[in-house]
Amino acid sequence: GSVHYGCGAPRPSKSSSPAASVHLEELESAAVGIRTHSFPLNRSSAVEDALRSDESVGSSLKCVAFDRYYAEEAYSFLVRGARPDALRVLDMQDFHALRLGRMEVVRRWDDGRRHDGAATTSSMMMSEELMDELVRFVPSPLDPRSNAETRGEAKVRDVLLRELAAVHRSDLTLVCSPREHRLLTDAYGIPPSKLCLAPFFASEHPPAYDPAVPAERRFESRRDFAVLGGFRHPPNVDSALWLKREVWPRIRSLLPDAVVHVWGAYPPRRAMQLHDEREGFLVRGRLDDLEGELSRRRVLLAPLRYGAGIKGKIVDAFRCGLPVATTPVGAEGTFLSPGGGRTAEPPEMSSRSMADASAHDRAADDDDDRGWGGLVASTPSALASSAASLHSDSSLWSACQGNARRILRALFDRATNLRRTEDAVREAMRDLEGRRERDVAGAVLWHQRNRSSEYFSRWIELKET
């Protein structure tokens, strides 16, 4: 069979977007063999023509995947009309409403701190109490009982309902995080048969775990801290600001010569203004050699106040043998159960070390005796202490690196996770008619009275033609 990639945007040029252009060329190479299609924005006829054309996508199109809920809103009705027998799969990436809702919780705490007169120049709040609220947070689909709902809270509710509608309309949804899988089934009543847990498909970077290199030498050969995260993603911007204002000064008080390399594409001016060579805070911009950089550094810092899903930066760090200092939000979805499999972390998880409960209070999950690939903390002081310990204690560092490798193999093994996802897709294909027959909620959302996203897309198209 063949794979086709369609995008509702002009094909990037080498001059305007060289990285994206190279990526497309790699996809289209003989080694990969993916056919790409660029469609004019808001031109459904071009998409429909491609879907109906055997020459374009072939006569046996079996499955169409949508990259996040808004792609499903824009294109699923076209696929349903042109290729009704194709399986429609939604790739959630992360739970957008959960991420946005947590962002609103943080903003509310920050605003309350300012209004109470307790704000410093940073006004960036974090405490055990706040982190507990963030970890427990569940977006509500209900209208508020008062008129006190903020614009941000209204957006969270709107995105939640749109995401849930996209899940219901789709035949199968790929969910990357066990916590979000549990939220969809337990809090929102999504049938488990419509969901597939599909986390990262990762493999080790071999030099990071070379058995010929003693653990002590692996530790000594690395230096400095690293931070990863594209600056078009709001949690990463917030993370860099919080790190510079609240966490990094505390790390420097413990390690006066510490240096951190902050990597991320599209840094805004306020991020570049954080660069301070005297303080060892180096904002680098786009990173082209991920594995090379992570293989040189000793600790990854991921001071996320909010976010959702499994964090790719942490999986990449584990791939490259790099222990991580992060928050409970940052570490979500990366814990082992006592049997060595995946577990959803309990809301009451500790914000301290996962590596050594006796040395760092209690473990994140009282049932987890396997340890985590780094240290986890909520407050600036605790996070700075954890980062400094990882950077200076070779025994702790080596133990966390071993834990990271074990987690990588147990939870993110490429072959295992690909096989699970492929099995789920093939099973859905085999019973597609039966699945749709049993999916009453999905059928209801395809009724014309409940297809506002389709008609909105068509209205935009008419307005622009």
Put the structure in a nutshell.
The chain has 465 residues and is α/β, with parallel strands linked by helices. Helix content is 47%, strand content 11%.
Topology:
Layout lengths: L2 E5 L10 H11 L5 E5 L5 H9 L1 H4 L5 E5 L1 H14 L4 E5 L4 H20 L12 H9 L14 H19 L2 E4 L2 H10 L7 E3 L17 H6 L4 E4 L5 H21 L5 E4 L5 H4 L8 E5 L4 H7 L2 E4 L9 H8 L4 E3 L1 H4 L42 E3 L3 H13 L1 H18 L2 H17 L1 H7 L1 H6 L6 H13 L1
Parallel strand pairs: 1-2, 3-4, 4-5, 5-6, 7-8, 7-10, 8-9, 10-11, 11-12
Pfam family, one: Glyco_trans_1_4
Protein name: Glycosyltransferase
Number of domains: 2
The Rg value, from CA coordinates, equals 23 Å
What is the averaged pLDDT score? 87
Shape: globular
Give the biggest sheet.
6 strands, parallel
Give the N-terminus to C-terminus distance in angstroms. Answer: 36 Å
- Contiguous low-pLDDT stretches (5 residues minimum) are 346-370
- β-strand percent reads 5-15%
Total number of beta strands: 12
Structural class: alpha/beta
Order of strands in the sheet with most strands: 9-8-7-10-11-12
Protein name: Glycosyltransferase
Region (Disordered): 333-371
What does this structure look like?
It contains 20 helices and twelve strands. The protein is an alpha/beta fold. It has two domains: 39-201 and 414-465, no CATH class; 206-411, 3-Layer(aba) Sandwich (Rossmann fold), CATH 3.40.50.2000. The two termini are 36 Å apart. It comes from Odontella aurita. Residues 333-371 are annotated as: Disordered. This is Glycosyltransferase.
